[in-house]
Amino acid sequence: MGVGISVDRLTMRYGDLVAVDEVTFDVRPGEFFGLLGPNGAGKTTTLEMIEGLRKPVGGSVTVDGTAPSGRDPALLRRMGVQLQASSFFERLTAREQLDTFRRLYGVDAERVDAMLDHVGLADKADVRTEDLSGGQKQRLSIACALVHDPDVVFLDEPTAALDPQARRNLWDLLQGLNDSGRTVVLTTHYMDEAEELCDRVAIIDHGRILELDTPAALIRSLEAPVQISLVHDSLPREQLESLPGVDHVGHDDGALTITTAEPAAVLTWLAERDALDGLSVKGATLEDVFLDRTGREYRA
Description:
Strand order of the largest sheet: 5-6-7-3-8-9
């Protein structure tokens, strides 16, 4: 059911600005793939070329072996697209908006109410789109992208305006789509979202791919120390500091904190002394990888 995507030296320029600079990667059929990067990195432009909304000035892209820029009707029916900015037909209710989309694809009418329920808008079905909140409009936009049950779904920052409950519910919906064999490609600024959902992620900046791997592999590559915290103030600090890999032992808000590159040795030592009360272990995250690769300076 899912489709593969091949991107080869994809390039887009606007005058002297190179927005996407010979980007190359593949998305496997049925994969959940994430494009991560700072503002202006080239994520949305790359996604729009894969969707066929922009024609590259160099390189090529195929979706299931077909160039999307050709606007092949058979391929378009297999693609679901949610854009970064939502735009709806004026003066239509949420149900009428979604009904318009399902008619374009020849989908049964029953699909409309099912999708409204899926994205938590069943109680807003008869509300005009201009009267919906920003988060509700975002959810309706996602419903429009999914109403025809596509084989590949492109989502550009799908949870940007959602509250925590709606965000988690959408995660479940997208994970369910992917579990059923569909290919999902998204851009997001939420690193926890990418870490939770994506099989692989590409970190892009200044139009180039900096890293491409599974979230777990990227986190391991950072080789960052682990911080272990526990509620205990009577442990011999000198012995802790002498353990292999321990870099620092201190106190933070009443908790003993141990920074180490070898957490297994520390945890074994603590377990042998029955000193695991209030234990928490914090390692590196995908956000740490992102900041390490792209820098910490402010991006407008």
